[in-house]
Amino acid sequence: MTAERFVRLSKPAVFAACLVPLGLLARKGITFRLGANPIEVITHSTGDWTLIFLCITLAITPLRRILRLPWLIRYRRMTGLFAFFHAVLHFLTYVWLDKFFDWHAMVKDVYKRPFITAGFTAFVLLLPLAATSTAGMIRRLGGRRWQMLHRLIYVSATAGVIHYYWQVKADVRLPLRYAAIVAILLGCRAVFRVMDRRRPGARMPEHAEKLAPERDVLPG
Amino acid sequence: MLIKKPGHIPSSEITSRSVYLNRRKFLAGAAAAGAVALAGRAAGDLFAPGISYADAAKLNVTVKSPFSTTEKETSLEDITHYNNFYEFGTDKYSPAKYAQAMRTRPWKVKVEGEVQKPRTFDIDDLLKLAPLEERIYRHRCVEGWSIVVPWNGYPLSALINQVQPTSKAKYVMFETALDWSTMPGVREPVLNWPYTEGLRLDEAMHPLALLCFGLYGEELPKQDGAPVRTVVPWKYGFKSCKSIVRIRFMEKQPPTAWNMAAPNEYGFYSNVNPNVDHPRWSQATERRLGEFLKRKTLMFNGYEQVASLYNGMDLRKYY
């Protein structure tokens, strides 16, 4: 089976897999198994999965290079949009279930509570990325500018981890785990950059793909 | 123009508020009753609380306290499955799972320090020191949620009078058990173990401060601080100390676990105060477990009678 065929056939399965966490949460909700504080469980679950999908998305570039599997990039838009999807759910949970549209309290939160400021920043930075995720937008922006813009994910993921770290009461072990993962994934990029500068020919031909008519290929 | 007048509804046909609010329970109950009839089982079994504690002993509760609130009590299920008891893990669900391994008999409580009659109490003697009361208190966590718990215990002052503090005693420190073999949470340096909490002596002597042995008429579930804990309803929940093994009377303010962990966030007093925010979140409102919309947090958690303890103190400074 060619990589092309594998990607095409596996995409629906990957899409379905990405829906599993939300499905499990929904099932718990329907069967009244969200515990004593359901809103808290929904908030934590959607927040966690935003970070997990951001990490998966950030892992694709290093993995495709280290494992020499260039076609991994074909899943990146999907995982990125799933990160955005969970961020939207997380944000809606806050706006609707937690604050119940108390705009005054929310505005106060955003400027007064550093952890909300960080989370809100992380969310807002994902908006332009989601909006420019279509092939048409890539063409309109041009690969280079599009790529520059999409580096905002580095800032968003970092802000997301800070949001989590500042939110917990005392047990920072979980947020630190996310921080370590994001640091490694961003660190890989720095290392690649140094390596590429030393050996200009070693770079994975990402831009070559841009020329292909295949709708799904995004510049890395 | 025709305006239709609403028909007269006899009051006998209006569904009472409590029945309306419990309509789901009513339907579930009706279905359950049907099932019971079919199975030929006693209905009593079915309406018993969902969880049973094999070793939960009934307490001899003889006094109903006038300090009790009439607000709706939180279910036993929620009180026992949403706990902060970091010795058993930092999430809300771990204490219910892991606390069952804690051995609460035999249990001794050492009372020491600035007292004329220091003494080590066996838990079963401590239980009989004063008549047990039912006190239905609001319980407000510093995290912004609250519950209503029918505690069983007697005033902390009953114990304090028994051991007779010296004139030097100004503070009381409480210490939670520390057992490496049954408490998975203490392997992590999340807090300074053992957990300690403290009160000023006059706070501890206040009639609202409770030495607590049970809830809902039975011995405390382990995840709620068995076999003995304090309940200080006008302060955030963490000021109440669970599974107490030591009570020490002191001249100086004792070091307390959360205050040591983050002094700018958790003051020694930590009175419930909607006007003084936690540095990271507002304390103006709270979510009562089981309710969808948040409710306003009350000064001193609604126990205004303690205000005189803090006369002349700037509660923004002494948070």
Would you kindly provide a written description of the structure presented here, covering whatever features stand out?
- The complex is a heterodimer of chains A (220) and B (319).
- Chain A has 220 residues and is an all-alpha fold.
- Helices cover 78% and strands 0% of the residues of chain A.
- Chain A contains ten helices and no strands.
- Chain A has helices spanning 3-30, 38-66, 76-98, 103-112, 114-131, 135-141, 143-150, 152-167, 173-198, 206-211.
- Chain B has 319 residues and is of the alpha+beta class.
- In chain B, a hairpin with a 4-residue loop joins strand 4 and strand 5 (145-155).
- Mean pLDDT of chain B is 88; it is low at 29-53.
- Chain B has one domain (11-310): Sulfite Oxidase, Chain A, domain 2 (Alpha-Beta Complex), CATH 3.90.420.10.
- In chain B, 19% of the residues lie in helices and 22% in strands.
- The interface between A and B is medium-sized, with 19 and 25 residues.
Question: Main traits of this protein?
Answer:
heterodimer; A: 220 residues; mainly alpha; 10 helices; globular; disordered C terminus; B: 319 residues; alpha+beta; Sulfite Oxidase, Chain A, domain 2; eight-stranded mixed β-sheet; five-stranded mixed β-sheet; 9 helices; 22% strand
At CATH level 2, the architecture of chain B is: Alpha-Beta Complex
Largest sheet of chain A: none
Q: Unreliable stretches of chain B, pLDDT < 50, 5 or more residues?
A: 29-53
The overall number of domains of chain A is: 1
Sketch the topology of chain A as an H/E string, one letter per element: HHHHHHHHHH
Q: Gap between N and C termini of chain B, in Å?
A: 64 Å
First-last Cα distance of chain A: 24 Å
The helix content of chain B is 10-25%
Major β-sheet profile of chain B = 8 strands, mixed
In total, the number of domains of chain B comes to 1
Shape of chain B: globular
Report the sheet-strand fraction of chain B. Answer: 15-25%
Which whole number gives the mean pLDDT of chain A?
A: 89
Structural category of chain B is alpha+beta
CATH superfamily of chain B: Oxidoreductase, molybdopterin-binding domain
Shape of chain A: globular
- Strands of chain B, total number: 13
Rg estimate of chain A, integer Å: 19 Å
